[in-house]
């Protein structure tokens, strides 16, 4: 737990890679909303379109895909994100294969983020009432293996050069975590947008998410100078520091905490 100095970091280009529609809204859309307000350009990569996530015999997987993509696109728009890529891998069956790693390397080399957000592939047991979804684990592992070191190695997946894509090193990786967080981003000003984004996932909401989100985000913020927070573990690759725009260490914003606390789930 060494990354205590980057809490005020504002990225320029952010890619978020997740398994399902609504994963971003539960884990990090308050942070995204904040960074968009501060000028960041953001790209969402949805590995599946959540096609088995609507339990209704009358709805086919193709229809579910259309519904959930529309919900995700609407949720992205709430926080100012219009660049949403759907890879349409089969929901519930994702594996961290070399093929998926390559698909993600392609997206990373295309968008060239300075910051990548994904889940925690090591999160397996989460509290006593949830097991982290296998798609979450597989996508997180594939995304982390894609961003480091694969995307940055010129002779790995060299065939992507035929598509005009060359190696790209990402400066920071933000892993969304429930436990052992090193960085807490202050989402006090954007929690309403986070809730509004979540509400777009109508097919997944049996009740309004507001109360649950406020409760959990407040728990993340406990003991820090903020009302609501999202929590991450952050890895910084100093050799990939974007040259033109060095990181600033001043300003208001997220606060890093010396001791980990969070213990909730999505
Ligand atoms: Zn999910």
Can you offer a commentary on this structure?
With 266 residues, this protein is α/β, with parallel strands linked by helices. It has a single domain (7-248, 260-265), classed as LmbE-like (Rossmann fold), CATH 3.40.50.10320. Helices cover 30% and strands 18% of the residues. The chain has seven helices and ten strands. The protein has helices at residues 23-27, 29-37, 61-78, 98-111, 134-147, 191-199, 210-221, and strands at residues 13-18, 41-48, 83-89, 115-118, 125-126, 130-131, 172-176, 183-186, 229-236, 255-256. It has an eight-stranded mixed sheet, sandwiched between helices. Strands 5-6 form a two-stranded antiparallel ribbon. Strand 5 (125-126) and strand 6 form a beta hairpin. The radius of gyration is 18 Å and the shape is globular. The relative contact order is 0.21.
Tell me the number of helical segments per DSSP (H or I, 4 or more residues long): 7
What ions, cofactors and ligands are bound? Answer: zinc ion
Tell me the name of the CATH homologous superfamily: LmbE-like
Q: What is the name of the CATH class?
A: Alpha Beta
**Range of helix content:** 25-40%
Number of strands: 10
At CATH level 2, the architecture is 3-Layer(aba) Sandwich
Give the radius of gyration.
18 Å
How many structural domains are formed by the residues? 1
Largest sheet: spatial strand order: 3-2-1-4-7-9-8-10
Strand fraction: 15-25%
Query: Which spans of ≥5 residues are poorly predicted at pLDDT below 50?
Result: 1-6, 256-266
Per CATH, what is the topology? Rossmann fold
User: How would you name the oligomeric state of the polypeptide chains in this document?
Assistant: single chain
Q: Major β-sheet, in short?
A: 8 strands, mixed
- The rough form would be described as globular
Task: Report the mean per-residue pLDDT as an integer.
Answer: 90
